[in-house]
Design goal:
repeat; mainly beta; LRR_dom_sf; Leucine-rich repeat, LRR (right-handed beta-alpha superhelix); 11-stranded mixed sheet; leucine-rich repeat; two-stranded parallel sheet; binds 2-acetamido-2-deoxy-beta-D-glucopyranose; elongated; 2 helices; Leu-rich_rpt; signal
Length: 277
């Protein structure tokens, strides 16, 4: 029996090896295309692939319906829609540190039990509208450090009706389209820090009626219409505006305009954060 280097099945109850005879010299996921879908004799509910490159073909995991935790890192460049078909028990999917450039609708269909998805540190620059449709259990989506993302287009998060936390830190964002966050009616926390946003209006966040934590720190925001924010974002309790292009006089005024239920952070305890004035 050979143990494939890239197939790590952590110990659960007993020592479990990954029976990967067919793939013993496969370093690239592409090679999986040659054979049937991955089939492991004994399988735990976790599977981790490291150092893989190439494309994830569809139906790759159809024979592993018990899988709950899947982690794939390396240089994956593309995921064919249907790659995760059959993973009805999947709860978390880690795809961070790959080279995924775009995602198409249907990519995650059938993963209706997925709660956590990490797409951080990829090279995403395009998301087809409704890419995440079907992920009705998803609670956390991490898309941080996709520096080529730049623009959030309409309807990309459509269908994520249970999402609570969305991270978009350091994604080069300079533009958020009006309905980008459409459908995220349960979102509680949105982190947009370390982007290049100059303007945000409350319309950008129209649907986020449950959002209580919004982080806009490290952007280039000069002005904010506190009134319209207060009117629409009923649940907002904390707004982080540290390190934007506002001088302290303006920042203070904006903070005052918010109702007292919203904690507006624009200055650190030592006075840094807003531009001194
Ligand atoms: C991924 O790509 C980088 C550079 O493009 C290369 O240095 C690295 O070895 C690749 N990793 C794997 C696992 O193939
Ligand atoms: C999803 O993509 C397919 C194939 O490209 C396309 O025919 C379909 O209209 C798209 N569906 C949605 C909801 O955008
Ligand atoms: C999001 O992903 C980034 C990059 O992979 C990672 O550093 C960060 O810890 C993740 N954050 C969460 C909340 O999972
Ligand atoms: C954004 O601000 C919130 C507080 O509003 C904080 O909990 C979170 O860690 C911040 N994120 C980053 C990346 O600094
Ligand atoms: C602060 O910035 C605003 C607009 O950006 C400007 O009108 C105002 O004069 C500035 N305040 C001071 C004290 O420099």
């Amino acid at each position: 029996m050979h143990i494939a280097r890239f197939c790590i099945v952590p110990l659960t109850i007993l020592l479990i090896f990954c029976e990967a005879r067919k793939y013993e010299d496969a370093k690239q996921v592409r090679n999986f295309r040659i054979g049937d879908p991955i089939e492991l004799k004994i399988v735990s509910d976790r599977l981790e692939f490291r150092d893989v490159e190439g494309e994830l073909p569809r139906n790759m995991f159809v024979k592993l319906p018990q899988l709950a935790h899947l982690k794939i890192t390396g240089n994956i460049s593309y995921i064919e829609p249907g790659a995760f078909s059959g993973l009805h028990a999947l709860v978390d999917l880690d795809l961070f540190q790959n080279k995924i450039r775009y995602l198409l609708n249907g990519t995650f269909k059938e993963a209706h039990n997925l709660k956590y998805l990490n797409l951080g540190e990829n090279e995403l620059n395009y998301l087809e509208p409704k890419t995440f449709n079907g992920l009705t259990s998803l609670e956390t989506l991490n898309m941080s450090f996709n520096r080529d993302l730049k623009v959030l287009r309409d309807n990309i998060y459509y269908g994520l009706s249970n999402l609570k936390k969305l991270n978009l830190i350091d994604c080069g964002l300079h533009d958020i389209h009006r309905s980008a966050f459409y459908g995220l009616e349960r979102l509680e926390s949105l982190d947009l820090s370390k982007n290049n946003l100059k303007f945000v209006t409350s319309e950008n966040f129209d649907d986020l009626i449950k959002m209580f934590d919004l982080n806009l720190s490290y952007n280039r925001i000069q002005q904010l219409q506190a009134n319209s924010f207060s009117k629409r974002l009923y649940a907002l309790r904390r707004l982080n505006l540290l390190y934007n292009n506002m001088n302290c006089t303006d920042a203070k005024r904006v903070a005052k305009e918010f109702s007292s239920t919203v904690q507006v952070i624009y200055r650190t305890p030592d006075g840094a954060g807003c531009k001194a004035v």
